[in-house]
Specification:
about 210 residues, alpha/beta, 10 helices, 6 strands
Length: about 210
């Protein structure tokens, strides 16, 4: 006898995304797409109605984000398996999703074969992270070079949107000195340009 089909429920607030997923997954042997939902309330109803094995959950839902919905569904259905499917590879989202009980995290632009592998891995009792997500998590957790107190102050100011001129005034420095500190920060953190420096400062605001 062949093993029972993996019963899949698709949760995403964009009908086109659900249609695409259904088209991808309905042809995979051993997969059975039993339902779909576009909101938190609909998701709860569909889980009760169809008793899926595994839920593919979007992170960016409108009425309730997918991470909170994951936690809610697992409170109600502890044996449910949740695989996050998201546009975002932000390490904070990934960590929060796993803490909420998700068993995997796959990017929406991943190849269909990767999504199929993720479903099979999670349904088989394992976990799965998209390789791109794993790389981002590893980079995020790697030890960060030590910054001086002044460099930390400048990064903090950049995260608030301050210019070099404003930082110079607030820290009682010359603009040239602030620019020198910015260059040192980029060198220490391996950042290529000003845009990467600002992005890093915003993403890590409150850490320095």
């Amino acid at each position: 006898m062949s093993p029972p089909a993996i019963r899949l429920l698709l949760i995403d607030d964009h009908p086109l995304v659900r249609d695409g997923l259904r088209a991808r997954l309905a042809t995979v042997p051993g997969f059975d797409v039993v339902g779909e939902a576009g909101s938190a309330a609909e998701a709860q109803q569909q889980v009760l109605l169809h008793q899926p094995t595994l839920v593919l959950m979007d992170v960016g839902m409108r009425d309730m984000n997918g991470i909170d919905l994951t936690a809610l569904l697992l409170t109600q259905h502890p044996h449910l398996l949740v695989l996050m499917l998201s546009m975002y590879d932000n390490p904070e989202y990934v960590q929060r999703a796993l803490q909420a009980g998700a068993r995997g995290y796959v990017l929406k632009d991943a190849p269909a074969s990767e999504i199929v592998s993720a479903i099979a891995a999670v349904a088989g009792g394992g976990t799965f992270l998209s390789p791109a997500v794993s790389r981002r998590l590893f980079r995020n957790q790697a030890p960060r070079p030590a910054l001086s107190m002044r460099e930390s102050q400048i990064l903090s100011g950049l995260a608030k949107g301050l210019s070099s001129k404003q930082l110079a005034r607030d820290l009682d420095l010359s603009v040239r000195t602030v620019e020198a500190h910015r260059q040192n920060i980029k060198r220490k953190l391996g950042l290529a340009g000003q845009a990467e420096l600002i992005k890093y400062a915003v993403e890590h605001a409150g850490e320095f």
